[in-house]
Amino acid sequence: MIDANKNRPAAGPEFWDEKTFLVTGGAGFLGSHVVDALRGRGAAKILVPRAKERDLRDIGAIKQLFADAIGRARGDASAVIVLHLAAVVGGIGANRLRPAEFFYDNLIMGVQLLDQAYRHGFGKFVGLSTVCSYPKFTPVPFAEDNLWDGYPEETNAPYGLAKKMLVVQSQAYRQQYGFDSIVLFPVNLYGPRDNFDPDSSHVIPALIKKCCHAVDTGQSEIVVWGSGSATREFLHVEDAAEGILRAAESYDSSDPVNLGSGSEVSICDLVTLVAQETGFTGRIIWDTTKPDGQPRRCLDTRRAEERFNFRATIDFEVGLRRTVAWYREQVCPPAHRG
């Protein structure tokens, strides 16, 4: 029986050089930062599948991908670590519009990838779940032991439940097969390279885009969903990447672990902060016919610090300022405004 609380000591530089890292979603928002962090640690063997080439809902595509990873590892499957970051994600609107896709695609990817990682003899599987998995009325701060105390907030329950199944599978495969798989629960992420598409983006990039557009076009007001009373916790994407790699390196348990900053901000205060950083001084109209989503979100982050010495380091206002600056430089430079 594997000790569910066993932790590995931190590995040396050779760990990153010797392992082959297969990063699903490695070309996306979080994944690209994880790949950068891997390279910064000296990892040279990194495999990033692209969705147009490898459909991770297709078991045949997964087997081909895993054969490529073993080839990259020179035949040593035990040297392969899967970092499963790929997901079908979006804000409240996207979750309400496409609940079946959010459930099926996320569930089938996670189930098949973890199972095939075990069957191929890989050394480790790191799965990312979501704060949306927590019950709607979880006591704040959300502790990992609260995961099964109720049903998730309705607007994103299909997505949250699909991702939560990674915990069940990880624990089952550890118990029966002794397979080293872990599951992390990041809170809402933000930072450079985020998705700014208004049809699928989360709250921070959506607000940045909306405020910047209003400034550039001279609009005197913006409309924001909900009442502004809900609270959220945000983790900078670079902090999230650091937490994932620390867990990949030294955490060996199927006990779920939160990744967060440990502090919350109301949506009302968030809108004020984004307006200040973008220079928007107009009127803010709250559309209370639209849902607020989960009333409060704030994670208990002690387990991550205790188990693999992770603690967020990027101040929220500093990180928000950097994100706005990146958007202005990379997505909406002066020549494309108006």
Rg (C-alpha, Å): 20 Å
CATH fold title of the domain at 13-190 and 234-263 and 298-314? Rossmann fold
Helix content: 40-55%
Query: How much of the sequence is in beta strands?
Result: 5-15%
- What is the succession of H and E elements? HEHEHEHHEHEEHEEEHEEHEHH
- What is the CATH homology-level superfamily of the domain at 13-190 and 234-263 and 298-314? NAD(P)-binding Rossmann-like Domain
User: What is the end-to-end distance?
Assistant: 63 Å
Strand order of the largest sheet: 2-1-3-4-5-10
Estimate the global geometry from the Cα principal axes: globular
Q: Count the DSSP helices.
A: 11
Residue runs with pLDDT of under 50 for 5 or more positions: 1-7
How many E-type strands?
Answer: 12
CATH class group of the domain at 13-190 and 234-263 and 298-314: Alpha Beta
**What is the typical, i.e. mean, pLDDT?**
93
Layout: helices, strands, pairs:
Elements: H1 13-18, E1 20-24, H2 29-40, E2 45-47, H3 59-72, E3 80-84, H4 92-97, H5 99-119, E4 124-128, H6 157-177, E5 181-186, E6 188-190, H7 203-217, E7 221-225, E8 231-232, E9 234-236, H8 237-250, E10 257-259, E11 265-266, H9 267-278, E12 283-287, H10 302-308, H11 316-331
Parallel strand pairs: 1-2, 1-3, 3-4, 4-5, 5-10, 6-9, 7-12
Antiparallel strand pairs: 8-11
